[in-house]
Amino acid sequence: MKSFEGNVKRYVQFTLAAMLVYVIGWAAMPFNKIFFSLGIGALIGLFNLWSMYREVKKFDEAAGNQKRKFTFGMLSRFAAGALAAVLFIRFPEHFHILGLVAGIVTPYIIIFISSLFQTKHST
pTM score, two decimals? Predict the structure, then answer.
């Protein structure tokens, strides 16, 4: 499990670095709406990553104790996606839909790229 926790910590660090790039882009580039949307979407994606990590950890603990554990993980991740949709619908002048979506999938892109590098180094 230590490897899993280390991987999640690395994913969080890379996502925070991407969010820093988004904030710098928001402050320095003329595409404020897109970078703002990327940052908010990445924040929602980071919540989803944390929620998924927590669910896997609870599942592992429950499996070790041979118990069943009910959680609201999937529901909370759907609610986070719905929050992004509500933000876009309520404040379309501040958000760019593609930026929100790209921000939400930022942690998953990082996980994909990281797994490609781990596969390449392990062979």
Answer: 0.85
